[in-house]
Amino acid sequence: MAARSTDLSQIRARLEAIESELVALDDDALPPGEWKERLHAWIDRQADEFGDHAAFGLSAASVLYNGHQMDVPAFRLPVRAGIGADLAQVDLSGFAAWLLREVLHDRIERVVEATDYPYGLPLAERGPRRQALRAERRKLWVEEEQQCRKIEDDGREAMRRADAQPEIVLAWDDELQKMARAK
User: Fold this and answer.
1) Which helix (H) or strand (E) element contains residue 150?
2) Which of 96, 102, 9 has the alpha carbon at shortest distance from 46?
3) Tens-digit pLDDT profile for residues 101-136
């Protein structure tokens, strides 16, 4: 009898580990190579977009003003005055990227290489890993319910987790067996 509750605690421990790994897939930092690649691409995009304005002698910049995107003369910005009025937001990242593209690329390389941080899987591998974890979690949910039913068959009470899946807990025994055999 003790073996069954141990099996149940092992199943639940694995379920906790899976839940933690699923959260980590969304929260983990990118590996250094992918981090650098994305930052370099962002710098290049910013510089290229601003380059269109630079072709006109820096005569206009695209800014967000009062909730609307608009072109205004560079380095001149109309601002509404008044209580509670929103001030215009000027994004100079394009100008900085256009002006200092190579400096920023070099700085990104140095900063990323010098940063020691824990990182997770590359983005391309996270989706398949997430699917595999979800499939394993579903299999464990079924195993958990089977163990709970065995404990109840022995005349003992089995406590189900608050987040137990209703479609599994309420399934008929034959349905549960089908779920257990499914991949």
Assistant:
1) helix 123-153
2) 96
3) 999 999 999 999 999 989 999 999 999 999 999 999
